Amino acid sequence: MSCGKNYDSGSCVIDILRDIVDAQNDVLTDCMTSCEQSIADLLGDTGGGTGLDTVPVILYCKGTCKPFKGFGSRKFDDYCNVKGSFFFRVKSVDDDGCAILELLFSERLLENNADSAEDNGCHKRFDPESPAEQNCNNLRASGICITVDLNCFCHVTCLPAVAAL
Predict the structure, then answer these.
(1) Domain segments of the chain: what residues?
(2) Which of 8-12, 56-60, 97-101 has the lowest mean pLDDT?
C-alpha cells in the first residue's frame, strides 16, 4: 500500500521519502497530510516564495516503534567527534529502498566546536535521548551523512520545512 504521491513501492516510508526528495530537488507537489503539508510549504504552495530547501524528518524503527537516531562525525572535525541526531534531511532514495540521510542540528550547535559545546552544557544535544530533547530551532545541514535501509522503518514524521542549506 502506497501513501506517497508519485511512487508505489509497497512501503509508505519509502514512498513519502521519495516524494520529499522529488520536492526538494524538483519543487513540485500539492498534498495536505503532515508530510505533504511540509512539502507544500517547501514548494511555496501555501503562499509566496519560501526560501525553504529541506523537510526535516524523524524515522521510527519497525518492531520497536522508537525514533531512530543516526550517528556520525564530520570529515573536517579535528578529532573523532561523534554526534547523534533524530532529525534528517533526505538526500536520495534508490530503487532498493536505501537512502542517504544527512543529520540535522540547530545552527547554534554546529557553530560551536565540541569543547565549547560541552562547556556550555550543550553536549547532551549532540547525543539526545529523544527527539524532544534535541533542539529543532534553526536546523542546519551538518555534512554528516549516513546510509539506511528504509525497509527497517514503519513511520515517518515530517517537521515544518526549513532553510537548512
Answers:
(1) 12-158
(2) 8-12
